[in-house]
Specification:
about 350 residues, alpha+beta, 2 domains, five-stranded mixed beta barrel, globular
Length: about 350
């Protein structure tokens, strides 16, 4: 009979559950693989409403700078992980995912037939890592960066590179918390169809307008300050704005979640916790394959820009990759097979040993 920390059955249960999750997740990946395999490449100019698969060169007139490596890019994605020690008496531990920050303006991809606008919010990324920084309080030096950041911008010579300091990156981690909560509030209000009750629909539209009003125009800047939003609502409510009264009530309804996130953000900013930031960037003048939903571009600047590829409301498949078509399909197929057969194998093995240890076989 096993006692205390020597009993491996808890780990076997974790392995069994993890294997089951991987097994069923594998079928989801396989469905995505088949969907992409059955979606033919088309010229950008031929893109029609619905799921499309195109390949083109990313272009953006005014590149933004990514937060971790300051790489000029069209869009970035940063995986933020926090170090969790194994126990208090050990130096071991693992980095566990905390949140993902993905942002950037709409840009275009072009081929010989034309161009199309891309909104990568909500996409899955399969692109090259541009940087990785570990924030452990010991050094401001990046552990991995691109060697010549300015060289990705056509016509410019590589310039001096000054990486963000650890203090700046800790502030960035805190700011992503604000952005996460702000987007969560917006997602709760941003529905596909108007609300049935006119009064509630007017309040929803007014709240969304306030979110847009308070969001800074820069694509990669922190999102709205929540305290400022509350104060603005209180001021408008005191002035007799009926919509502000209702919006303030809705804001207070989620006060618990908002305040909890604010406490966590302040803790992140002031603490010396260990974090790992892994960054991926969509670079200008680089070819990418994009599978997503083509729909009307609400901000079309000219008739040639009437369509946009983004995440669909009904079809969630939305991927951007730097690989060739064959590599994309092979990668998804192999991933699905590993998850299905690997998950099943892990679950069966863990279950066998669990039953053996428990004298149930």
């Amino acid at each position: 009979m096993f006692r205390g920390n020597s009993d491996p059955r808890s780990w076997l249960v974790v392995g069994f559950v993890g294997g089951i999750v991987a097994f069923f997740r594998g079928f989801s990946v396989y469905r995505e693989y088949k969907l992409i395999e059955d979606t033919p490449h088309i010229p950008i100019a031929s893109a029609s409403m619905g799921l499309v698969r195109v390949r083109g060169v990313a272009q953006l007139a005014d590149c933004i700078l990514s937060p971790v490596s300051r790489t000029p890019c069209c869009f970035y994605r940063v995986e933020i992980s926090k170090w969790t020690p194994s126990n208090k008496d050990s130096d071991g531990g693992v980095f566990e995912h905390l949140r993902t920050d993905a942002d950037g303006p709409r840009f275009h991809i072009t081929d010989d037939s034309g161009k199309i606008s891309i909104d990568l919010h909500g996409a899955e990324f399969d692109i090259v890592q541009t940087a990785m920084r570990v924030l452990d309080g010991t050094s401001d030096s990046p552990s991995a960066t691109m060697a010549q950041l300015e060289a990705v911008v056509s016509g410019k010579q590589p310039g001096a590179y000054i990486p963000p300091s650890e203090h700046e990156l800790r502030d960035y981690v805190s700011a992503t918390g604000v952005k996460t909560v702000s987007r969560w509030i917006g997602s709760k209000l941003d529905t596909q169809y108007p609300l049935a009750e006119p009064a509630k629909e007017q309040t929803r539209q007014a709240f969304l307008a306030l979110l847009r009003e308070m969001t800074p125009p820069e694509a990669n800047s922190p999102a709205i300050p929540l305290d400022s939003m509350r104060k603005m609502l209180e001021a408008r409510a005191a002035g007799g704005d009926s919509h502000a009264v209702q919006m303030l009530a809705a804001f207070k309804e989620h006060a618990g979640a908002i305040e909890a996130e604010a406490v966590r953000m302040n803790t992140i900013q002031e603490s010396t916790e260990k974090y790992k930031l892994t960054e991926y960037c969509v670079l200008p003048n680089t070819t990418y394959e994009i599978v997503g939903t083509c729909r009307e571009n609400p901000d079309a600047a000219d008739p040639s820009d009437h369509s946009m590829i983004a995440r669909g409301r009904e079809e969630s498949t939305f991927r951007v990759s730097w690989k060739t078509a064959g590599e994309v399909e092979l990668g998804l197929r192999n991933r699905a097979m590993y998850m299905i057969f690997g998950g099943a194998t892990v679950s069966v093995v863990c279950l066998y040993f669990f039953l053996s240890i428990s004298d149930l076989l």
